[in-house]
Design goal:
With 374 residues, the chain is an alpha+beta fold. The chain has 14 helices and six strands.
């Protein structure tokens, strides 16, 4: 027994035992019996057994409700919104009371928190104290409210909760990896907004000098190209988002063209990552709708998005798009074409629609020899 797969399988087994026996005393006894059996399972690593793997890497995560309470509260503090009810990682969290006390440079945020997951029957009520410095949650202590003997958050004394033998201390080093990534995303989002505002103001303030440098057509040093690239990329993503809204396509295209020319002027490459993903999603949605109901407007929309991709070199991968359209071509569009051919005197509108459909197929590099238009 060793390696990641063994740890995962043992984790599943221990979790099943935990959920299968709600009574904590019986669950603890069953876990001990399980660990005794695992002690016989030798590892190919020295001085390791199934029991030592469980005790070293799994059991510390079993009582996870306090940790989830700590992480959930930290996220709410970071996002500057402490709602009395929220859902974290599938667990319903209810803050029944809260209070805060300042001690020097630190703020102690104190809570009475209920946490529950109906699907598994897990629930608990905790007293929590989260330490915040310079607006950033850094550590905290979580204990069952019954162990603290309290009823209100303002009754929580930071020193008392720290010294309670049943209190579980937490810091950012203790939390799950995916929770660290989510907290990091919150910080990055906050910093991105501030960075965009700061860089955009800097760009306006120095626009004359930057324009002069751009006209000289010489490579810009990193301390200039970095902020300019950041602002142009953010502006590009904002403009691209209008493709998914009610803004006029021509106005959106014009805004993109202006940003594209500006980037070329400064010798900067805009980061198309987000806009590429957005455009691919829009194309797939439009083609999916076209497969259900053909229309001239839908054809024009797809063509327009394809032109934007090609004009600005966004690099949207075409395999999914072509696969989806191929299905439509051989089904919905083919049936529409065959109905058109059977009609001795098709309406002008119907002929124009068929022509647009076949033209779109050519635009997407499909062979249309089987669809002659007489």
């Amino acid at each position: 027994i060793s390696g990641l797969e063994s740890v995962q399988n043992l984790s599943y087994a221990v979790r099943a035992l935990q959920l299968g026996i709600p009574d904590r005393q019986r669950a603890a006894a069953a876990l001990e019996e399980f660990l005794e059996r695992l002690a016989i399972a030798k590892s190919n690593l020295p001085r390791k057994t199934g029991r030592s793997i469980v005790e070293g890497e799994i059991t510390r995560w079993l009582d996870h409700l306090p940790m989830l309470t700590f992480i959930g509260l930290c996220e709410k503090i970071i996002s500057a919104g402490i709602n009395s009810h929220f859902v974290y990682n599938g667990y319903a969290v209810t803050i029944t009371d809260s209070a805060a006390i300042a001690e020097g440079a630190a703020i102690f945020n104190k809570f009475i928190v209920g946490i529950e997951k109906q699907a598994t029957g897990e629930r608990g009520v905790y007293g929590a104290c989260i330490v915040q410095r310079k607006g950033i949650p850094q550590s905290g202590w979580i204990a069952a409210a019954s162990d603290l003997g309290i009823g209100r958050a303002d009754e929580i004394k930071p020193e008392a909760i720290r010294k309670n033998p049943r209190t579980v201390p937490f810091s950012m080093d203790d939390i799950f990896i995916d929770a660290r990534e989510h907290l990091a995303a919150l910080y990055l989002s906050e910093l991105a907004q501030d960075t965009q505002t700061t860089y955009a103001a800097w760009l306006v303030k120095n626009s004359a000098s930057l324009d002069a440098l751009g006209n000289l057509r010489i490579p810009l040093p990193d301390f200039l190209s970095g902020p300019i690239r950041y602002v142009l990329t953010a502006s590009w993503d904002q403009a691209m988002a209008h493709f998914d809204g009610d803004s006029g396509e021509e106005a959106t295209y014009s805004a993109l063209l202006s940003l594209w020319h500006k980037a070329n002027k400064f010798g900067i490459t805009i980061d198309y990552t987000k806009s590429r993903e957005l455009l691919q999603t829009l194309l797939l949605n439009e083609l999916g709708a076209l497969s259900k109901q053909v229309s001239a407007a839908r054809c024009d929309r797809v063509r327009y998005l394809l032109n934007a991709n090609d004009r600005f070199g966004l690099g949207v991968p075409k395999n999914k798009i072509e696969d989806l359209f191929h299905t439509s071509l051989q089904d919905t569009i083919k049936k529409r074409y065959e109905a058109y051919r059977r009609n001795v005197a098709p309406a002008t509108e119907e002929k124009q629609l068929v022509i647009q459909l076949i033209s779109l197929a050519r635009r997407m590099n499909f062979n249309t020899d089987e669809f002659p238009i007489g």
